[in-house]
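step 4 of 6: structure.
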Amino acid sequence: VTSFNRVAIIGVGLLGGSMGLALKKHRLADSICGIGRRESSLDEARRVGAVDNTTLDIASGVKGADLVIFATPVSRMRELILAVAPVLEPGQLVTDVGSTKTTIVAEAEAAFSSGVDFVGSHPMAGSEKRGPTSARDDLFEGSLCFVTQTDTTSLEAVERISEMWSALGARVRRTSPDTHDRIVAQVSHMPHLVASSLVNELDEDMLETVGPGLADLTRIASSDPDLWAEISAENSALIAQSLCNLAHTLEDIAKLLEKNDIESLRNLLQQAKIKRDNIIKCIGK
Amino acid sequence: VTSFNRVAIIGVGLLGGSMGLALKKHRLADSICGIGRRESSLDEARRVGAVDNTTLDIASGVKGADLVIFATPVSRMRELILAVAPVLEPGQLVTDVGSTKTTIVAEAEAAFSSGVDFVGSHPMAGSEKRGPTSARDDLFEGSLCFVTQTDTTSLEAVERISEMWSALGARVRRTSPDTHDRIVAQVSHMPHLVASSLVNELDEDMLETVGPGLADLTRIASSDPDLWAEISAENSALIAQSLCNLAHTLEDIAKLLEKNDIESLRNLLQQAKIKRDNIIKCIGK
């Protein structure tokens, strides 16, 4: 694995902070500069050892970095990409950790000049917690990380970013930005809205009757509403399509129940059990 | 709490076995007879200490029992209620642990002669495991147990069954059989089918991308398909209605996404978060 002399992390929250800690743990960065908007967050990030030095000035922060990591909320990325583009120089490698990819990759490829390599990343790791004090050096271990590749992406750059994530313990999956967004709509964004809807459908007098099954099913409904509203907005068309597909499936099951077709219902439950058991084998839980 | 001289448990699987262990732990039964169809299960139940003696003959098993517990799958209850009815005598108290209540309670009330008190129970406890070797003496601790009451239920009988469940560590909720079935359709049966559907919607190449959120969300899709097909059949009309309600909600959310109404989406996520946080307060997890 090639290591980096100087890494700049823009945004030192849970993900940015954890990247700093993990890069240091695996000795992949000689020095890490944390860039942010508030001194207090930057101080915390330095205190927990996620970064070595900090700055509020994005231009001076990224100067001379051989790796620049965008780790802000997706909603701020566009603005930051445009702000950073003029100061980046050929040879600098840039990635991000945003949970949607089509828009970000397109904007970065359009904004950055030739010789500046952008490779999108999406580590599927996180927690309900936020901020640098929640950062962990093992956050990415055993998780999946998408790395995006387009017609114009440098293959060497994709290799370096993929190796970095592997070194931090993630399983890497290379996809196009489009395929990424379609997959995460189905495996993450849509299910999130379903979990929240299952909660909203409950009458107040049902709350005390929730058992361990529904408690697990709805755990992610306790996540940050602002963050998930943002993520949903970024991938809205594909999520809407997934929601409609699921709605039709549920209506079909309702019809099976109404005509008492229990054999079809059993087959459907059986098929789901086999697939769910396979998921657990795949992700090693 | 009044204890029982002789308890008969029909069906010594996870729930029946756990009732035996829990009744003994709390010294609520002098002697427990396990009744089943297979010697091997009965032997296992005796070996783990869930019952003191066993029989394949249901009539001799329930004879002289001051408490009879039906702990078989719901699909076998009707037949067993009819088989037991002629041998039960006034003064015997009968309950069950079935996960639907309207049909079972109506059938038992119709079949049992005057003086035999039937009170439906539904302890919302269990696991993916089955059989007497999975039985635990603390299975009901901290769980919710529904106890049903109708116009004809003896209040004293309801009190005794409620006290028993409280003594085993369950929070007791008294409802009518109808209300019970409406609640469990919403908090248990319908979410189960949603979890299975979320799994079935995944393409094979998405399985390895499932993160901790969707893994939790779909955990119950790994449950026994036969058991859940049966449960769904017993409560089909109310589950179908819940599924259609959810389907409409999901289509409404898809419309919000299509017109980019992120403010409404955020409100909906916020409302769900507050309610989900309340659930956790209610059920003390």
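step 5 of 6: annotate
 - The longest strand of chain B covers residues 4-10.
 - Chain B has a mean pLDDT of 95.
step 6 of 6: archive
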